[in-house]
Amino acid sequence: MARFTVRVELRDPHESDYLELHKIMELKGFSRTLTTNTSGVVYQLPVGEYAYESETMDNVAVGKLVEAIAEKIRPNPMILVTQSAGRYVLNLTRI
Fold first, then answer.
1. Taking Cα atoms as reference points, which of 13, 11, 8, 40 lies closest to residue 26?
2. Strand order of the sheet with strand 42-44?
3. DSSP readout, 21-73?
4. pLDDT per position as a tens digit, 43-88
5. Within a 13 Å sphere around the CA of 42, how many CA atoms are in the beta-carbon half?
6. What end-to-end distance do the CA atoms of the chain give, in Å?
7. Nearby residues of 75 by Cβ (< 8 Å), 6 or more positions away
8. CA 80, CA 62: separation in Å to the nearest integer?
9. Least packed by Cβ within 10 Å: which of 10, 30, 54, 76?
10. pLDDT in tens, 27-54
């Protein structure tokens, strides 16, 4: 199972734009939290950042999915997708 960290930044957003983005991203299987493999601790990700897992998608496919979602909210969103080979968490809010 591939794990991804996704960052989405909307251009000239209204506050409600991020609320809409969060709602749609969560419906598509993206999470605003991250659970560590070693301890099982759950952390809140920063605003505009998501965790995603897929057995079939690579980073390009995930990026295109995110672009399709975010483009409906604001044009030309800034998107960064990283496939994880491991994560280090520091100073994130523990849930």
1. 8
2. 33-35, 42-44, 93-94
3. HHHHHHHTT-BSEEE-TTT--EEEPPTTEEEEEESS--HHHHHHHHHHHHHTT
4. 999 988 999 999 999 999 999 999 999 999 999 999 999 998 888 8
5. 4
6. 24
7. 11
8. 10
9. 76
10. 999 999 999 878 889 999 998 899 999 9
Q: What's the DSSP call for residue 92?
A: P
The amino acid at 53: E
Dihedral angle over CA of 16, 91, 8, 61, nearest 10 = -140
Q: Is 92 exposed, middle or buried (0-12, 13-18, 19+ CB in 10 A)?
A: middle
Give this prediction's pTM: 0.91
CA distances from 27 to 20, 21, 24, 37, 95 (A): 11, 10, 5, 23, 21
Nearest-angstrom CA–CA distance, 16 and 88: 31
Contact 89, 33 (CB under 8 A): no
CB 33 within 8 A of CB 95: yes
